[in-house]
């Protein structure tokens, strides 16, 4: 396999290209603006699996009617610290950002917010949301459903999604500690990224149609959970908290990203926001988080490592670098963004593992 060329793009230009493409597909400006902000954050943080690589697919889904263009987003407060945001299957990044705002209002008032997001589109990289909450001083957890593309431990057919978990906590120096991971060895987007770059994947990430490990991203038919039965258990927990608890389809009934692009996704997401001041002295708390980071940095690295990073630190380091120097994007993705094209038959109906 030959690796695809990379072009470095300034964040503002990437933002405008993404926003314009989504609007060309039919998305209203305010939704396109928020989605572009989110996708640039992902690419700038090195999360290329959830950045510009997704625009082609999003645009096709928007053009085909699988995203509500003018969603009636409502907040149903179900208790002092609980509520559900009904997303009406709007653009996931927009719906989930709005939902976060409701959760922030609630935690400010009650010190705790468990807010579910019911019936949203694909929401992208979850670190985007939890980081925002931690920047306002809250401890934040978010999880979401994703399409069933993971073989359960010991199984040969897909059941749960790549169901990610993101966590953020404020620190003393205004830079939150943000950790964000899929419960699979790699997110599905990493397979997409490898496909876009024509790059082989490690044999530990995924299986082919016979259930055997594969290094060819085009042959992938199922992903593997992290740490065997433990990751398998975590993805079940995510499916319950972000799906069943909100009365949404679960397990293999969760909608598939590439099956029918005219249909709505009906996905679930959840936020748990905690005001540290309700439990401890918040100044002491953030001081201790910074102390933890410092102590981790002081740990002698193992052979082959240059230093110990706090969980998620690499994303922040990359973000600072790419925002200053420009973001590397696969050249074919950039060429697509710069073109007038909105695809209509690139992804739809080709199943979760479309090539
Ligand atoms: P990953 O494997 O690249 O990284 C996982 C975490 O480990 C990150 O916080 C990263 O900064 C940290 N990390 C990596 N190397 C490290 C090191 N040496 N020291 C300390 N920390 C280190 O992420 P993954 O699992 O591929 O997920 C990518 C993204 O996909 C996430 O943003 C996730 O939210 C998103 N996602 C979204 C889905 C959706 O449906 N909305 C579904 C699945 C994933």
Automatic annotation (TrEMBL):
Q: Which GO terms describe its molecular function?
A: oxidoreductase activity
UniProtKB keywords: Oxidoreductase
Q: Per UniProt, what is one Pfam family of this protein?
A: Ldh_2
**Name of the protein:** Ureidoglycolate dehydrogenase
Q: Which family does it belong to?
A: Belongs to the LDH2/MDH2 oxidoreductase family.
**Record keyword Hydrolase present:** no
Highest taxon above the source species: Bacteria
User: Is the keyword Nucleotide-binding assigned to this protein?
Assistant: no
């Amino acid at each position: 396999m030959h690796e695809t060329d990379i072009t470095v793009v300034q964040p503002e230009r990437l933002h405008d290209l993404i926003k314009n493409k989504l609007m060309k597909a039919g998305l209203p400006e305010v939704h396109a603006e928020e989605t572009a902000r989110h996708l640039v954050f992902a690419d700038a943080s090195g999360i290329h699996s959830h950045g510009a690589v997704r625009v082609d697919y999003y645009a096709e889904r928007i053009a085909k009617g699988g995203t509500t263009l003018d969603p009636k987003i409502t907040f149903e407060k179900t208790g002092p610290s609980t509520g559900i945001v009904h997303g009406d299957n709007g653009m996931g990044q927009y719906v989930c950002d709005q939902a976060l705002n409701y959760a922030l209002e609630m935690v400010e008032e009650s010190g705790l917010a468990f807010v579910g997001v019911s019936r949203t589109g694909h929401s992208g990289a979850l670190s985007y949301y939890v980081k925002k909450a931690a920047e306002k001083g809250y401890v934040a957890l978010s999880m979401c459903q994703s399409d069933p593309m993971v073989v359960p431990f010991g199984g040969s057919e897909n059941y749960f999604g790549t169901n990610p978990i993101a966590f953020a906590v404020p620190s003393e120096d205004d830079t939150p500690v943000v950790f964000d991971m899929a419960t699979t060895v790699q997110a599905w987007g990493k397979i997409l990224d490898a496909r876009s770059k024509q790059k082989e994947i490690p044999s530990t990430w995924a299986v082919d149609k016979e259930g055997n490990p594969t290094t060819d991203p085009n042959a992938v038919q199922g992903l593997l959970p992290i740490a065997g039965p433990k990751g398998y258990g975590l993805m079940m927990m995510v499916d319950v908290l972000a799906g069943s608890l909100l009365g949404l389809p679960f397990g293999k009934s969760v909608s598939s990203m590439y099956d029918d692009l005219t249909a709505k996704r009906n996905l679930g997401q959840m936020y748990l926001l905690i005001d540290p001041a309700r439990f401890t002295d918040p100044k002491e708390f953030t001081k201790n988080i910074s102390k933890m980071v410092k102590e981790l940095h002081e740990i002698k690295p193992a052979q082959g490592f240059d230093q110990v990073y706090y969980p998620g630190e690499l994303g922040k380091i990359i973000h600072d670098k790419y925002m200053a120097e420009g973001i590397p994007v696969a050249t074919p993705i950039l060429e697509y963004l710069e073109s007038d094209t909105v695809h209509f038959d690139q992804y739809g109906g080709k199943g979760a593992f479309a090539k």
